[in-house]
Amino acid sequence: MKQKKQIKTINILHIDSYDKYGGAQKSTVNSLKAIKLMLKSLQPNSNLDLSAVKKNAFLTEETDLYNNCGGSKHQRSAHTQNSKYNFNFYVIHNNNKIYEEELNNLNIPNFSIKMKNFGDIIAIAKISKFLIKYKINIVIFHSSRDHMLGGIACFLSGRKIIKILTRHVAYNVSFLKGFLIYHLLTDHYIAISKYIKNILIDDLKINPDKITVIYDIRFSDETMGTDAAGITEVYVKNELNIPEEMKIISIIGRLSNEKGHKTFLNAARLIIKKRKDIKFMIVGDGDLFENIKEFINDNNLSDYIIMTGFKKNIERYIEASDLIIVPSGLEGLGGIIVESCMQKKPVIASNVGGIPEIIDNKLTGILFEKDNFHELAEKILNIIDNKQMLNKLGNNCYKKISEEFNPYKLAEENLNLYLRLLKLESFNR
To answer: Which residue in 142, 135, 198 sits closest to 165, CA to CA?
Structure first.
């Protein structure tokens, strides 16, 4: 009698203590989405075309994840009959309602645990209890607070758990925090860019063998043809009362100091003195919202600069824009650049962090010196009317990230890393 194939169950937990929905949370959602789709594509009776998934630069939100990747809410695991492994994914968050909604849409079981500070004993106890109850094999952290709390909880659980830190940002880390978290409570690191990897090596003296670079996964909301793009532009212009003939230049993302909104505003002020046919769009919310609003009012710029607040479906605002500006002073990679390139939209970005890994100056985008709003204004004015150059930059960037940011490829890299750390056989291409 033929022996039944043995399937090993692997339980993976993401912990995230940030209480607002941002780039790190979006990255986790997209990673889980891509992994589920990839695993489903390997099933023998799957109606998903695996070759198409591999070739397609960006899987779309239109993919029926309920039917193809998750099953019902009671169907918690992600596995394939062709695989030796059965993956269960869980997320613990800090009462992050938007994050919770996104995870529920994907049928990922998630739990809210209040994580108040680095020494939150109650949170540590709850996390430790969760690790034991769900027999967690791997924990993935996304910030220092959840790393500290979760790392201690792993120790207290008595289980042999692999602890992974996904490093999303390029902030400096104090010596004490670096020693406690990065050296005592971490087994492996995922860096979202080569730049972040170099920081871990140079500043924190992490062994390069313990670092794996895996780019953030991003999805395109829809595959837009010319007609769809035109409809989207009209929709956004109608929503925001922007005249049809006006050009739109946008900055999209969290309103915080490191994102460079001050540079964007000062460049816009210079341009408005010369051009009255451009609207500057600020999409996002954050701590600087009122400060930016005050700057616009004090400088009589409200006729030319629009603040939309938080928008869930940012792809439509990218699509409606003629040019995307990323003036960050600090950036681990630049997820908004990837999302803009998915829509073949040209980008002007500051030459910092991991951004040059996406933007080759004058080939896949344009770079400028951070904080130099005079240079930014000049480069915007030089390109905004040159449709041929705008199209060239957008198409070139799309081609580049089609090869390097394929969700199937990145999902496979994540899973193979988990299996390697567990000393299990990896997936074959």
So the answer is: 142
Helix (H, G, I), strand (E, B) or coil at 297: helix
Q: Domain containing 286 — which CATH number?
A: 3.40.50.2000
Q: Do residue 124 and residue 254 come from a single domain?
A: no
Average pLDDT over residues 353-366: 95
What pTM, to 2 d.p., does this model score? 0.83
DSSP symbol at 4: P
Q: To the nearest 10°, report the CA torsion of 103, 69, 32, 207.
A: 160
Q: pLDDT (tens digit, 9 = 90+) per residue, 300-340?
A: 999 999 999 988 888 899 999 999 999 999 898 988 999 99
Number of domains in the chain: 2
Range of the domain at 198: 8-218+405-421
**Statement to judge: residues 281 and 203 lie in one domain:** no
Question: pLDDT confidence of 72, banded at 50, 70, 90?
Answer: very low
- Residue 11: which H helix or E strand, with range? strand 8-16
Distance of CA 410 to CAs 215, 346, 374, 422, Å?
7, 24, 38, 19
Q: Are residues 257 and 312 in the same domain?
A: yes
**Which position has the token pair 């680095």?**
118
Q: Which two tokens stand for residue 166?
A: 């996904």
171 and 255 housed in the same domain: no
Residue 52, pLDDT above cutoff 60: no
354 shares a domain with 271? yes
Largest CA distance in the chain: 83
pLDDT value for 40 = 83
Nearest-angstrom CA–CA distance, 218 and 236: 22
How does strand 366-368 pair with strand 188-191?
Answer: unpaired
Same domain as 67, residue 15: yes
CA distance 401 to 354: 14
